[in-house]
Fold each of these.
Amino acid sequence: QKEVEQDPGPLSVPEGAIVSLNCTYSNSAFQYFMWYRQYSRKGPELLMYTYSSGNKEDGRFTAQVDKSSKYISLFIRDSQPSDSATYLCAMLTGGGNKLTFGTGTQLKVEL
Amino acid sequence: NAGVMQNPRHLVRRRGQEARLRCSPMKGHSHVYWYRQLPEEGLKFMVYLQKENIIDESGMPKERFSAEFPKEGPSILRIQQVVRGDSAAYFCASSPEGRETQYFGPGTRLLVL
């Protein structure tokens, strides 16, 4: 079993839709949770960073962490075609230094 | 403020040759990480370095791969005697002291013929 599971998609939604992206994990030592966006043939771009459980909002993006269920989510409101990319969840243990990534969910926002 | 810089962006090598990948961290960042992304797979941690020190190399293959981050100059990931299975995108990330957030460069795409 992988430490971090992520549905690879692809996920196709119409412009303006609310998108929900999710990851589950098995390692209860993870304390830091990140979401990265990766456009085709580019490097991952840090979108959101959350410590422990709770919600964090930044513009159209909301990150949620539920440590009791070992489940994290990224919500994108009013999705745009420019949001079309692969979204990677990543996690870090407390005091750790190596990110553990999900395999990424490919999102396409259609006009 | 320039981001993480990597060069070359694309590298083609024949089997048995050496590949050298360079990474310059963001200004003010003293921690460097290397990750590898194979086709259809997620990013996998390889090594974590600070200036002149390898802190964690638990993700590095035992043979042919080495990394350094000298006092002056960029971090180097070196792959000796490349094989076709080394073909992948190699990403470097950096972070400032005491921070968990890692910022990635554009990657080097290595193709072994």
Note: Chain A touches chain B at residues 4, 6, 32, 34, 36, 41-46, 49, 51, 88, 90, 92, 97-104 (CB under 8 Å).
Amino acid sequence: NAGVTQTPKFQVLKTGQSMTLQCAQDMNHNSMYWYRQDPGMGLRLIYYSASEGTTDKGEVPNGYNVSRLNKREFSLRLESAAPSQTSVYFCASSEFRGGVYEQYFGPGTRLTVT
Amino acid sequence: AQSVTQLGSHVSVSEGALVLLRCNYSSSVPPYLFWYVQYPNQGLQLLLKYTSAATLVKGINGFEAEFKKSETSFHLTKPSAHMSDAAEYFCAVSVNSGNTPLVFGKGTRLSVIA
């Protein structure tokens, strides 16, 4: 089991460029999430997908789009990157275990927009 | 809506001393509470979780937390700090058996002094 994998690990973009962050999980989980982490802000939810074919906005969705391609994969797209999107992005998936849904996190993608 | 407040963005303790990281939550329905740890340049790892089965919860690496409904708190403790405990710690809350996105606190960075 690789768990939750994310690509790329690092990326530098210029303002206005686009890119897609990839996330995959091999644990057969239904729910998947995208968070961003900024210093002093904790993790904030961008989008989530409760099951294949469904997506919902989180706290900070502006400037992002998502695709739940299949049960394994959940991608995050920046159509026109802005410096405010410089952040570390984490993907997570969840399963029901010990009476509660536990979230498992990927290693993160560190994105810099210049 | 749920929210989490972590008191102290940075806590410093001596090796062997008690670790106490504070977390207060707000929730209109019974909460599910979590503590995660993040080591430098890594993703988040679950330390422990509260699911209403017991108010004192033991987690990995010698950490434990006590749910106190009257104080709306879920503070994280460890009797004796090790150098390897230096990391960032996040408290998070969810509802509905945790099958909703987590709401995170802003994090507390723990430093351990030799």
Note: Chain B touches chain A through 24 residues (CB under 8 Å).
Amino acid sequence: QSALTQPRSVSGSPGQSVTISCTGTSSDVGGYNYVSWYQQHPGKAPKLMICDVTKRPSGVPDRFSGSKSGNTASLTISGLQAEDEADYYCCSYAGTYTPWVFGGGTKLTVL
Amino acid sequence: EVQLVESGGGLIQPGGSLRLSCAASGFTFSSYAMNWVRQAPGKGLEWVSAISGSGVSTYYADSVKGRFTISRDNSKNTLYLQMSSLRAEDTAVYYCAKGNALRYSDYWGQGTLVTVSS
């Protein structure tokens, strides 16, 4: 199972919006509505930000939103804040043989 | 409050074995799938293995299949990862994570570092 494809880095100024893409195949992203997104600050454990493509867990700001079109999922962060600077990983269910596949990660820089 | 505390990491020689543990609290452990996810130094996240709540179903990444064994003791609220035939490329921080079926993981431990080196 190949990793999902994410841009290595994105950036934006405070208050702006950024979108991180996550491209897979019909066997993972396109085949199931089970895409999740994780935020990871340096030296910390990942934190779930979006599950099931569009759902926000309790406590996650509504500035974070998820979507999917075909084999590509996206995470949009609006009203960028300094604390949003982190690495972001997408993950998709990929069937019962190897259930999970991660993207390579995207480093978000808040300018 | 959900808590996941990994232990058992350390320095091990290539070809050696190591068992990681993850002590869980704050939720009904036996009702949830659990995952192991690793992160090599400076690299991204890699899913390693998953196990159903009952322990009957297990899943492995191709990179560890045949070398790693996931298990759980629901009476002790503990998840395990038995790692054998370790290679340098297994060097990573290993996280345990509480699963919601196989859809996502909503809570993660702080990780334990495994270093495979002679």
Note: Chain A has a mean pLDDT of 95.
